[in-house]
Specification:
mainly beta, 6-stranded mixed beta sheet
């Protein structure tokens, strides 16, 4: 196309010499003028087709000529395209180009698998240096091989009747079919003719029509014959024969100008007569030029027009019965131009429009071609108003010939125009044509010689938006005032050389707003000043970038809807031009026209078919696109009506009125509204004698709601039924109803008698008159005459039907006295009148004041889905009491951009409860009042946001990935829930290695705020984990997401199952006291005897120390302290422990043999308690301790829970009750405090693991448990007590732990008046090492010594690094020493407690621990450890007896 344009520009000099044209399509070519400089304006060159190819039907082996001839002053070059591709005619021996441009195809080739000549052909004419035009396309069809789809069969026919002999062939072979009788050509006439399908019809059969018939196909080559069929002619039958259709009319689709034949062939005796109706009106064929009745009653229509479309009915009657058949004629039309594009002169940078209006049926589609090449719509070539071509920012290469090509299923047409772009110093020779836009008309003024202005100064963008930019500037230096200057603004996208132009609206104006720009795009602007002599210098280029737009999709373009059935509509649309990212889906809204009940459906593609709609009903449709940011801009509504169908209900209120002895009048009402399913075109009436139910007569009437049936027999009962008709057919009929004609007719030899009564009811300007008929019913009454007037009844007279019993006299004067008379009449005359008088009522002036809208509209939010709207009405009394029949309409909608539809409701009170709203959504409300026919305007709007609701959908897109470089750390990512129903305040991550575990046995990780990612550290390598996430807003927790599985990576240096190589830092201190590593591998170098000695020694030393301390503390107790202890006891008594019946009296000794409890002691000297590294501050958690009694069978598996006990019930296990409370995780902001984090560890195969006194015992199946305790517990320690070790206590007798100073802390500090007790009972059941189930433990910063290990002096080492996040399985030794402690704040939810310090023994020295780590083979056997534990229990019972004494 570019090459042709270049050649066209080179020839522009000699084109200017061409004048005149002979084709009407180029009538504008004669316009020419001179520029001020004397330049000659180039003229339009006539270039068009004289002859274009047409659709052609050929046969195999024949020759075909496709005609084409083009006119131009220079001889054009003709080429041909087949199916869009140029033909190479030079090397083609069968196809050749004739001198006039026509295409000759010799010996057409056509077979089942090779059809090289069949297709669409197009003629292309080119003139060098001028341009190219293309013709309309023509279809070449080659008739297939001759085949019969049905053949004639032998038959017999009665003389005078009609007969049909079938010979069905393909449609393209019908023109080649002929018939033979007795193997002689059969000559056709009005009596013998063929149908378009090839079938032969013989009407009014005579004896000479008998014989052998066959049909012949002559499509080139030897003819093909059908089977022969014998036709026998029978004499007239002696008895009547029922009417029967041999061939009914079938619906046809024809093109204007063609002919159509509706066959209607029947058989029966007597010989029937056919008559035709069109659209329920009698069709007259006599004397008509286009409608003719063929022999036998078939209808032929020639030269079809649009007006011929409709429903045709063939009614056949032979005197005994009537039958009917219907068929539709659909008329189509090829494209036809209502307005052809016109030639255009223009300058560069202008905007132009080629107009093209077409009509046709079906509606044609339009495409544009420039110089033979398709115009592809872009930013500068746009299709506007469906058919017109707009070219923006013209450049020189846009010159040429533009053609509008319209096509539909019937054909295609083309019309063209030429565009000439003149130099800027050449004025356009004519007035501004309509094809120039308003932005470019200022170019058209001719210029004179003189000084030109300099460049405008200081061009700046004073306002920049997403889709428009406002430019301002100062006057040129050559003309400081600039009152007479106009300005031209040229602009283009950066990198595009096609400039657009915009002009100022009036002289002297120094600003312009450029509209319809693209967001986030760089544009280049320059400004030129223009005076009466012409445009001056251009300003320097200014680059400006538009603002980015909100990241929501724009409206979906080209939305269209088509009805495809009476109950279905297909809606289609295109992708939004500004999608702002990937379109996720579309929402299609639809609504029945006239209602406000809008429905929607989610659609993934660009089309959707909606089923189940009402028949023949208008619906509106709109589409909203959604991307990841939400709904975009809604499209405009498109309205479409579903197709019609037969009525779905029968007519109503069918009634019969016997007129006389031979006629009955039928009255009815249309079917109920909503059941017509189309336009009612008429009614079908069927009636019969009640005694002969098989003898039915049909009568088709128009749309009137009555029908007089005449010619009936006197004194006979008839039954009637009525059905409604649409263009689609007949609906259901009414039930049969009967009436009997009179034996004799009424008397009409005299006038009727006087009506039996007359009543009047006066109104302001009318009087309602009602009456009853004369008492003598034997005299015919044809109607009634009503006379009325002021003072006299003879001023005016009105006659009404005899059936009428009331009448309203209109247009009377108020407060006037009228006299009224009523007379019955018939054909003889009027009867005796009846008189009455009445005075019309006085005229009352209506209240002219308009209704005032309601005021003070307020929205009160009641819940997440309910808002109460209240208002006041100034037109009511002060007490706001409604006494009249007024009502109020409330409307509301959300402020979502895509929602433009209001919902409304009516009420008769001054408030309304709006329900069914969405949570956490802003709504706007307004109210109007209606009284009678008067309504107010809408009130001021009130706004309200519904309350939040717990999220109703889980977080989505949950993913788990391993952190690069840290295989034991994973990162969990997710997206907020789709239905957050409020501001998300946090999330909870649940994870476990057992996806089937109870949810309270999963480990939890809280996340505060609206973060969408979280790290979990120190997980076990090569282990599958399952993750769930739960969202929370201010109203609570939402549902959990589905479990997501993730397997941690394998260790790089693994040396065996359960053993992992540790990265040991320079400050690493090995674990103490012979406890196993978290992985279960032995770390103590001591043999079993040494460990036994250590365990016994530690037990004895500990007992001696505690006894001494207890005696010392007992002696120091004073009466003052006893009082305070009593006060403490009373205070404690006011709070109930879970599972307690009375207060717990704390023992004076630190160790108790049945329970290990943490008692309140003095505050730690450490001023900075160690804080947890849990990501968010938490309230106290209720955790239920485990109850594994030592008194029960030590090998019995047990998962029970217990609360705190009083001292009296310590030894009574029967009173203990297992509890499994809910886990509550409040996210409210609280000051940081030490808390316990729940840690799962491995199920260990060695029974010598021990919990710390602050830990929670592991239950038998290693489930995660939470201790429920209304008291806080904390941990505090000196720096010398901290070590990098984590131990767990197992198989250890419970011991009460009570620091000596607990009583003083209880009452003296007054910071926590309740004593705190944290108890646990260690697990006594051995477990299988093959399981890795989660369990709960506490990871302090130093180990609590096992009671079987002697005390070791502290090392004094200090550590700085914090503990990692909570792992699910056992922990490895950390690379760095730890500084922080995971503690538990155990107390009532919502109450903040100070942490309670716990004194713990020191860690062993480094040398002893190192020796213990050396021997990895030494370990205790389970039986030995059990014996030692039993011995230690006996010692503690003795100690308890001493303490009690």
């Amino acid at each position: 196309m570019a090459a042709r344009g270049a050649r066209r520009l080179l020839g522009s000099l000699w084109i200017a010499l061409l004048l005149g044209q002979s084709d009407p399509a180029a009538a504008a070519a004669r316009s020419s003028s001179q520029s001020p400089a004397g330049s000659t304006v180039r003229t339009f060159t006539p270039f068009y087709f004289l002859v274009e190819p047409v659709d052609t039907l050929s046969v195999r082996g024949a020759s075909v000529i496709l005609n084409c001839s083009a006119f131009c002053e220079s001889s054009p070059k003709i080429e041909w395209k087949k199916d869009g591709t140029f033909l190479n005619l030079v090397s083609d021996d069968r196809r050749q180009l004739l001198p006039d441009g026509s295409l000759l195809i010799n010996s057409v080739v056509h077979s089942k698998h090779n059809k090289p000549d069949e297709g669409y052909y197009q003629c292309v004419a080119t003139v060098e240096s001028l341009g190219t035009i293309v013709s309309k396309t023509a279809k070449l069809t080659v008739a297939g091989l001759p085949r019969f789809t049905s053949q004639p069969e032998s038959t017999s026919v009665y003389r005078g009747n009609s007969v049909i002999l079938n010979c069905e062939v393909n449609a393209d072979l019908v023109p080649f079919v002929r018939w033979e009788q007795d193997r002689q050509p059969l000559f056709l006439d009005d009596r013998i003719f063929t149908l378009p399908s090839g079938a032969l019809i013989i009407s009014n059969v005579t004896d000479g029509d008998g014989g052998l018939y066959r049909c012949v196909i002559e499509s080139g080559g030897s003819p093909k014959y059908s089977d022969e069929a014998e036709l026998k002619v029978l004499p007239d039958p002696e008895v009547p024969l029922n009417l029967v259709f041999l061939r009914q009319p079938s619906s046809l689709t024809k093109v204007t100008g063609q002919s159509a034949v509706f066959p209607c062939v029947t058989a029966g005796f007597p010989t029937p007569v056919n008559r035709w109706m069109r659209n329920e009106e009698e069709l007259t064929t006599e004397g008509s030029e286009r409608f003719s009745l063929l022999a036998g009653g078939s209808l032929e229509i020639s030269d079809i027009t649009d007006d011929d479309a409709g429903t045709y009915a063939c009614i056949v009657d032979n005197g005994n019965e009537t039958i009917e058949a219907q068929a539709d004629l659909t008329v189509q039309a090829p494209p036809e131009f209502l307005k052809q594009p016109a030639n255009i002169y223009a300058h560069e940078s202008m905007d132009i429009i080629f107009e093209c209006e077409v009509t046709g049926k079906p509606t044609p589609t339009v495409k544009w071609v420039k110089n033979g090449d398709m115009v592809i719509p872009s930013d500068y070539f746009k299709i506007v108003k469906e058919h017109n071509l707009q070219v923006l920012g013209l450049v020189k290469s846009d010159e040429g010939f533009y053609q509008c090509i319209a096509e539909n299923d019937i054909g295609n047409a083309q019309a063209g125009a030429q565009l000439i772009i003149l130099e800027h110093d050449v004025a356009i020779p004519t007035l501004p044509p309509t094809s120039l836009t308003s932005a470019t008309t200022d170019h058209l003024a001719p210029a004179t010689t003189g000084p030109l202005p300099s460049a405008p100064r200081d061009v700046v963008a004073s306002l920049v938006s997403t889709r428009f930019i406002k430019l301002t500037w100062r006057t040129p230096a050559s003309d400081p005032h600039g009152d007479n200057l106009t300005y031209i603004v040229f602009y283009t996208k950066e990198g595009i050389n096609r400039e657009r132009v915009e002009n100022t609206s009036r002289p002297g104006e120094m600003q312009v707003t450029i509209q319809n720009l693209m967001p986030e795009t760089v544009y280049v602007f320059r400004v030129v000043a223009q005076n009466k002599h012409g445009p001056g210098e251009s300003s320097a280029s200014l680059k400006v970038a538009t603002q980015p737009e909100v990241q929501l999709p724009g409206p979906a373009p080209n939305i269209r809807a088509y009805a495809i059935s009476p109950t279905s509509v297909t809606v289609m649309w295109d992708t939004p031009l500004s999608g702002n990212g990937e379109i996720q889906n579309y929402k299609l809204y639809y609504m029945e026209k006239g209602t406000d009940n809008e429905q929607d459906v989610d659609v993934g593609g660009h089309s959707y078919t909606i089923n189940g709609l009402k028949k023949y009903t208008e619906y509106s449709f709109r589409v909203v696109a959604y991307n990841k940011h939400g709904p975009g801009v809604s499209t405009q509504d498109v309205v479409v009506q579903t197709l019609s169908d037969v009525p779905s209900a029968a007519p109503q209120n069918l009634s019969l009125e016997v007129r006389n002895s031979k006629s009955i009048m039928i009255h009815w009402q249309p079917p109920p509204a909503g059941t017509h399913n189309g336009q009612i075109t008429g009614y079908k009436i069927r009636y019969r004698k009640a005694s002969r139910k098989s003898d039915v007569t049909e009568s088709i009437g128009g749309t009137q709601l009555f029908q007089l049936i005449e010619g009936l027999e006197r004194g006979t009962e008839y039954s009637f039924r009525v059905a409604a008709l649409t263009s689609n057919g007949t609906g259901p009929a009414t039930d049969w109803i009967s009436a009997e004609t009179f034996e004799s007719d009424l008397d009409e030899t005299r006038v009727p008698e006087v009506p039996s009564s007359l009543h009047v009811r006066p109104l302001v300007t009318s009087i309602v008159v009602s009456w009853t008929p004369p008492e003598n019913q034997n005299i015919v009454v044809r109607g009634y005459a009503i006379g009325y007037g002021i003072g006299s009844p003879h001023a005016q007279t009105i006659k009404v039907d005899y059936k009428q019993r009331y009448y309203t006299i209109e247009n009377l004067d108020p407060s006037s006295h009228y006299v009224i008379t009523l007379k019955a009449f018939n054909n003889v005359g009027e009867g005796i009148p009846l008189y009455e008088s009445a005075v019309t009522r006085p005229h009352t002036v209506p209240d002219p004041s308009p209704m005032m809208p309601p005021v003070g509209v307020q929205a009160s939010i009641l819940s997440h889905d309910t808002i109460r709207i209240t208002w006041a009405d100034n037109s009511l009394p002060k007490n706001q009491k409604i006494t009249d029949a007024r009502y109020y309409t409330v409307r509301w909608k959300t402020n979502i951009p895509a929602n433009t539809k209001y919902k409304t409701a009516n009420t008769t009170t001054l408030s309304y409860l709006v329900t069914g709203l969405k949570p956490n959504t802003l709504y706007e409300f307004s109210v109007m009042v209606t009284k009678g026919r008067r309504s107010s305007t809408w009130s001021m709007t009130a706004h309200g946001t519904t309350f939040e609701l717990v999220p109703t959908s889980p977080p989505k897109d949950v993913t788990v990935v391993s952190k690069e470089g840290k295989p034991k750390t994973i990162i969990v990512n997710w997206q907020p829930p789709s239905e957050a129903n409020g501001k998300i305040t946090g999330y909870i991550i649940y994870y476990s290695t057992d996806v089937n575990a109870e949810i309270h046995d999963w480990v939890i990780e809280p996340v505060v705020g609206n973060r969408l990612t979280h790290q979990i550290q120190e997980l076990t390598l090569d282990t599958p984990y399952y993750f769930k996430i739960q969202a929370r807003n201010s109203k609570g927790m939402g549902p959990m997401s589905e479990a997501v599985q993730f397997r941690t990576p394998k260790a790089l240096g693994s040396t065996g199952k359960g053993i992992r190589t540790l990265d040991v830092g320079p400050d690493y201190k090995p674990p103490m006291s012979g406890s196993n590593s978290p992985h279960g591998s032995p770390t103590s170098p001591l043999d079993s005897n040494m460990l036994l000695v250590i365990i016994v020694s530690v037990g004895v030393i500990t007992i001696v120390i505690v006894v001494i301390v207890a005696v010392f503390c007992t002696r120091r107790t004073t009466s003052h302290q006893k009082k305070k202890r009593a006060a403490c006891k009373s205070v404690n008594g006011s709070h109930k422990y879970k599972g307690n019946s009375k207060d717990v009296k704390p023992p004076d000794l630190w160790i108790h043999h049945e329970r290990l409890e943490l008692k309140p002691i003095d505050k730690s000297p450490d001023p900075n308690p160690i804080m947890t590294d849990t990501p968010i501050p938490r309230n106290s958690q209720d955790i239920t301790p485990v109850d594994n009694s030592m008194d029960s069978n030590i090998h019995q598996r047990r998962n029970s829970y217990r609360g705190h006990e009083s001292e009296d019930s310590m030894s009574t296990l029967a009173g203990r009750r297992g509890m499994r409370p809910k886990m509550m995780m409040p996210f409210d902001s609280q000051p940081p405090q030490p808390v316990i984090s729940a840690h799962p560890i491995h199920s260990l195969d060695n029974p010598h693991h021990h919990f710390h006194s602050g830990s929670l015992a592991s239950p038998t199946r290693s489930y995660l448990h939470h201790q429920v305790n209304p008291w806080p517990i904390g941990t505090s320690m000196s720096h010398s007590d901290r070590a990098n070790s984590t131990e767990s206590v197992r198989n250890t007798p419970s011991t009460d732990t009570m620091p000596a100073s607990s009583s003083q802390t209880c009452c003296a500090d007054h910071q926590d008046p309740e004593s705190a007790t944290g108890s646990y009972l260690a697990n006594t059941q051995e477990e299988d090492t093959g399981q890795n189930l989660p369990t709960a433990h506490v990871r302090p910063s130093h180990p609590l010594k096992s009671f079987a290990v002697p005390a070791v002096p502290p090392t004094g080492s200090t550590y700085d690094s914090a503990l990692p996040s909570t792992p699910l399985l056992s922990q490895q030794a950390s690379n760095h020493p730890v500084h922080s402690v995971k503690t538990a704040s155990i107390g009532t939810l919502g109450r903040t407690r100070p942490p309670m310090p716990v004194v713990v023994p020191s860690a062993p020295d480094v040398q002893e621990t190192a020796r213990m780590l050396e021997d990895s083979e030494s370990n205790y056997e389970p039986d030995e450890l059990t014996k030692e534990m039993a011995h230690l229990e006996g010692l503690m019972k003795d100690l308890n007896a001493i303490t009690t004494a």
